[in-house]
Write a structure and sequence with these properties.
Its EC number is 6.3.5.-. It catalyses: L-aspartyl-tRNA(Asn) + L-glutamine + ATP + H2O = L-asparaginyl-tRNA(Asn) + L-glutamate + ADP + phosphate + 2 H(+); L-glutamyl-tRNA(Gln) + L-glutamine + ATP + H2O = L-glutaminyl-tRNA(Gln) + L-glutamate + ADP + phosphate + H(+). It holds the Pfam family GatB_N. Heterotrimer of A, B and C subunits. The protein is of the alpha+beta class. The protein folds into three domains: about 280 residues, no CATH class; about 110 residues, no CATH class; about 60 residues, Arc Repressor Mutant, subunit A (Orthogonal Bundle), CATH 1.10.10.410. It is built from 15 helices and 16 strands. The strands form four sheets. The chain has a nine-stranded mixed beta sheet. A three-stranded antiparallel beta sheet has the order 5-4-15, with no helix packed on it. Helix 2 runs antiparallel to helix 3, helix 7 crosses helix 9 and helix 9 packs antiparallel against helix 10. The N and C termini lie far apart (about 80 Å).
């Protein structure tokens, strides 16, 4: 009889913070840029250079910790984590081990079995390393220090998750909180949110932890889900064969759907942590915590209830819109301008989501302005353009944020409302479809839609639907 196994999963999530400058120097923390241009003696580890803490990093850490229900260490400090690697110019990383800024929190997630709280062990501040670029053509590795010193929060969970679905639910909730706070854009594809998965398996019902492995190189939720399933299967196969699982760090290859050993897993003692002598401790007062709390924006739960109450949109619409801070912001600003929240919701729920899916984009990548979306809604509402033209205009707004009035004039998309032109087209359609006209007069109302379609076809889609409906009904009666 085969044994049943349980998966035990904890996460270490690294989030790059949305500060203008790096954690310990004044260099730009912006993603990208020409290699080694966002650098100075501090973030490249030059002898004699001294770090100075960026206050905004502490503020973001406090905001995330408070939103995640954490306790705040009123006295915290930085430690040196010593290791050699080419993208680590000082041969140590400034991090927090002994006194992290936040500890003992939790995030509630929805699972198939109902609500569940994933406990957060700690949140600490640290600096990012540089980036190694492997040049296969020249058979060498180059290093870009632009990312060195970019501020990170590391959010360490307890091993409370049991499957990939719970892990993704936790990550999505965490990402949403951080994006709402404005602390990070959390773009996995740019590395501003990264997750290392600590996973072990044990016999179902056992209280003893299995030997865990840590998986790195996970840059999408799909890759994380596949890596969890792949590593779970690998460990169970080892146990079934009577072999031991080795505690190690593994690299997930999403193309091969398999993980490969990188190095044996280190313990804290291997890094020779000690307090950083160049940075004083951070003392966090009650007043500082109170000030951060007062600045906390409305988070998703409150926003969801308010949208249903104030805007009168369906709960399903509100759920989708509030699942992204960017989408929620566009919804609110557009509704404020045009005063038509249900129509704004429709454009976001249908056309915006369609184009995001087609282009493989995230809601945070939306670049059109609320002003142009509001203009489009008003133009479609007053009959300046018909529904078909409105969709074409929206695609242009979505891609280039073009002023809809300019685009309509340039492309000649304005709906024809001239009564004389429409009368001529309607007369022609009625003479060519006299049987349908008689059928309508005889009580077959469904025929009306066919006749409207024929008129729109005659007008090459440029007629005002409202005007066509009115004139056609007058003619048929």
């Amino acid at each position: 009889m085969s044994r049943e196994y349980e998966t035990v999963i904890g996460l270490e999530v690294h989030v790059e913070l949305a500060t203008e400058t790096k954690i310990f120097c004044g260099c730009s923390a912006k993603f990208g840029g020409e290699s080694n241009t966002h650098t100075c003696p501090v973030c490249t580890g030059m002898p004699g250079s001294l770090p100075v803490l960026n206050r905004q990093v502490v503020e973001y850490a406090l905001a995330v910790g408070l939103a995640a229900g954490c306790e705040i260490n009123r006295f915290c400090r930085f430690d040196r984590k010593n290791y050699f690697y080419p993208d680590n110019p000082q041969n140590y990383q400034i991090s927090q081990l002994y006194l992290p800024i936040c500890h003992d929190g939790g995030i509630e997630i929805e699972t198939e079995a109902g609500k569940k709280t994933v406990r957060i062990h700690e949140i600490h501040m640290e600096e990012d390393a540089g980036k190694l670029i492997h040049d296969e053509w020249e058979d060498c590795s180059l290093v870009d220090y632009n990312r060195s010193g970019v501020p990170l929060l590391e959010i360490v969970s307890e091993p409370d998750m049991r499957n990939a679905q719970e892990v993704i639910a936790y990550l999505e909730k965490l990402r949403m909180i951080i994006q709402y706070l404005g602390a990070s854009d959390c773009k996995l594809q740019e590395g501003s949110m990264r997750a290392d998965v600590n996973l072990s398996v044990r016999e179902a019902g056992s209280r003893t932890m299995g030997t865990r492995t840590e998986m790195k190189n996970l840059n999408s939720f799909k890759a994380i889900a596949r890596a969890i399933e792949g590593e779970k299967k690998r460990q169970i196969e080892l146990l079934e064969e009577g072999k031991a699982v080795i505690q190690e760090t593994r690299r997930w290859d999403d193309n091969k759907e398999y993980s490969f050993a990188m190095r044996s897993k280190e313990d804290a003692k291997d890094y020779r942590y000690f307090p950083d002598p160049d940075l004083p401790p951070v003392v966090i007062s009650d007043e500082w915590i109170r000030a951060v709390k007062e600045r906390q924006p409305e988070l998703r739960t409150e926003k969801l209830a308010r949208y249903i109450r104030e805007y009168g949109i369906p709960e399903y619409d509100a759920q989708i819109i509030t699942s992204s801070s960017k989408m929620a912001s566009i919804f609110e600003k557009t509704s404020e301008i045009c005063k038509k929240p249900k129509k704004v919701s429709n454009w976001l729920m249908v056309e915006t989501l369609r184009l995001l899916k087609e282009k493989g984009m995230e809601p945070e990548d939306i670049s059109f302005s609320p002003e142009n979306l509001a203009k489009l809604i008003d133009l479609a509402d007053d009959g300046t353009i018909n529904n078909k033209a409105a969709k074409e205009v929206f695609e242009e707004i979505f891609s280039n944020d073009t002023d809809p009035l300019y685009y309509i004039e340039e492309r000649g998309l304005k709906a024809v409302g001239d009564e004389g032109i429409l009368l001529a087209a309607i007369d022609k359609v009625l003479s060519e479809n006299s049987d349908s006209a008689e059928a309508y007069r005889g009580g077959k109302e469904k025929v009306f839609g066919f006749l409207v379609g024929q008129v729109m076809r005659e007008m090459k889609g440029q007629a005002s639907p409202a005007a066509v409906n009115k004139i056609l009904k007058d003619k048929l009666s």
